Amino acid sequence: MEYDNFCDLEVSHKQEWNIEVRLARRWEEIDIENGQVRGIHLVFIDASHKRMHCWIKSTLIQQLDAKFVPSEMYAIHNFIVAPFTEKYKCFEADKQIILTNLTIVTKLQGSYSLIPQNVFEFTNLKKIPTAEEQDTHLIDIVGIVQNVQPISPVTRGLNKAHRVIKFEVTDLIHNVNICFWDDFATNFEDEYNEQLDHPVIVTISSCRMIRNNYTGLTTVRNASATSFEMNANVERVQTLRSRFWEVHGI
Predict the structure, then answer these.
(1) Which residue spans within 112-217 are E strands per DSSP?
(2) PANTHER family, from UniProt (predicted)?
(3) What distance in Å separates the CA atoms of residue 207 and residue 194, rounded to the nearest whole number?
């Protein structure tokens, strides 16, 4: 069977698309009013190393969600390609995949080395302090972790208790302030403390830039789409580690 690349997909009423992809990430969208799952977000990667967002609506979760496991490969047939207009979408893109009750999902066996485990479009840390309010998509960043503070409790609206961890990432020239919240903060602290290789370099996918208009400072925070990996086996991490050793004369 011939498969379509993401660049071939077009917004239309057509459903007879066929793709071969790896699932990079999965997360739920929760309705903040009732706590119910509104749907499932997926991020797929194809053989051209491109990413595409996919949506499973709540009525199809029981039928489709159990089929998907991160890092696994899939052939997916029959779906809709629609505009991607969500606010703070997980990365900059203009179209997305919508699975339907006619979608057929087949897990692929064997090794598909042409499709990587993940793909990033790293934002230069230099650009983050000047982020504007109209930035509507989340970003990927990579940097050396430094100045990690202990998790601290905070209270926001209606006296709801939260936990935050603050730290910085640097590319050895520019520093960016990071603030992770609640379970994400705990997960970060636990993984950071377990790292044996230093400096610890973190890749953060789909994080949000928050600009304080009073101070003019921009902080990077986690969103529902955010994920992180420490000391990942990706070229940008290896390059940054080499630069660190050069700067420190090691």
Answers:
(1) 139-146, 152-156, 160-170, 175-181, 201-211
(2) OS03G0429900 PROTEIN
(3) 23
